[in-house]
Write a structure and sequence with these properties.
Layout: E1 34-36, E2 41-43, H1 46-55, H2 66-82
Antiparallel strand pairs: 1-2
Bound molecules: zinc ion.
Length: 86
């Protein structure tokens, strides 16, 4: 099947109207670089993240305590302010 508007090939499971695409779960989501508070490092890729986690023997499953969580949020807010993003 071909779209009448943009002539794109529409396969089963594709969104039938322009712009086409697959449901969100199947879409490619690019890695967004971020600063990891726990590791204290700027993370620019998944590989870098895994490497940094391994190097510091960190575990994703370590949950934040409520105190750590609010400290984390304060830090995030302060950094956003410093960067002029809010
Ligand atoms: Zn189309």
């Amino acid at each position: 099947m071909t779209c009448r508007k943009c002539k794109a090939e529409i396969r089963i499971g594709d969104y039938p109207f322009c712009p086409h695409g697959r449901p969100v779960t199947e879409e490619y989501r690019p890695f967004k670089p971020f600063y990891d508070e726990g590791l204290g490092a700027q993370i620019n890729s998944l590989a870098e993240w895994n490497r940094e986690m391994k190097r510091k023997n960190a575990d994703l499953r370590d949950p934040f305590t409520p105190g750590q969580m609010s400290a984390y949020k304060d830090k995030q807010r302060d950094r956003r302010k410093a960067e002029g993003r809010c």
